[in-house]
């Protein structure tokens, strides 16, 4: 691993996948400009897979009541956050294929299902689909531009960087909401779903 200065890291961050703050691997094919290789995409997909599995570990034992609870009225519930992550997974695959939600959803959203189990089923299907779409990508597609949630044009490779950081960030949001619920109501034991 090569340690980068803060300035170098920040200047490269738009084009370099960060594994830990200010660290990144020395890839056999270095990222240059908007050029990404399928190896970098595979690494980012592996990182997303880890976050996905960890998310469901953090959701172990959640009840429907807890899934709907908000720390304050302006907050999102765990159900909304997980539905939002599922929405992004569906949106990203559609963006790569130029169809579906990509053509209609111009702002971030959350898909809703009647139960957390139903959200998991839908999210599992979305992950399976996005993984298949990514595995079928040709290298030249990675630099193709898409409009990110109706706002700014980015290369498709940027979606994979966003996917892993997005899932990681919202996973920590779920941990925060569930941890707060555990401390406030003393119904759940935080160590059961979040051993930290």
TrEMBL record:
<protein>
    <submittedName>
        <fullName>DinB family protein</fullName>
    </submittedName>
</protein>
<dbReference type="Pfam" id="PF12867">
    <property type="entry name" value="DinB_2"/>
</dbReference>
<dbReference type="InterPro" id="IPR024775">
    <property type="entry name" value="DinB-like"/>
</dbReference>
<dbReference type="InterPro" id="IPR034660">
    <property type="entry name" value="DinB/YfiT-like"/>
</dbReference>
<feature type="domain" description="DinB-like">
    <location>
        <begin position="52"/>
        <end position="173"/>
    </location>
</feature>
<dbReference type="InterPro" id="IPR006311">
    <property type="entry name" value="TAT_signal"/>
</dbReference>
């Amino acid at each position: 691993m090569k340690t980068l200065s803060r300035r170098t890291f920040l200047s490269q961050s738009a084009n370099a996948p960060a594994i830990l703050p200010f660290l990144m691997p020395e890839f056999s094919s270095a990222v240059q400009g908007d050029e990404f290789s399928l190896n970098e995409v595979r690494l980012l997909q592996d990182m997303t897979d880890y976050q996905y599995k960890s998310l469901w570990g953090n959701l172990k034992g959640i009840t429907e009541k807890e899934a709907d609870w908000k720390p304050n009225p302006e907050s999102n519930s765990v159900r909304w956050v997980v539905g939002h992550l599922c929405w992004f997974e569906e949106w990203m695959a559609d963006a790569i294929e130029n169809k579906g939600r990509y053509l209609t959803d111009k702002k971030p959203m959350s898909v809703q299902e009647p139960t957390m189990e139903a959200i998991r089923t839908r999210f599992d299907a979305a992950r399976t689909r996005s993984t298949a779409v990514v595995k079928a990508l040709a290298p030249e597609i990675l630099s193709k531009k898409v409009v990110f949630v109706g706002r700014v044009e980015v290369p498709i490779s940027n979606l994979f960087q966003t996917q892993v950081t997005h899932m990681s960030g919202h996973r920590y949001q779920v941990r925060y909401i569930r941890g707060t619920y555990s401390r406030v109501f003393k119904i759940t034991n935080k160590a059961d779903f979040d051993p930290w």
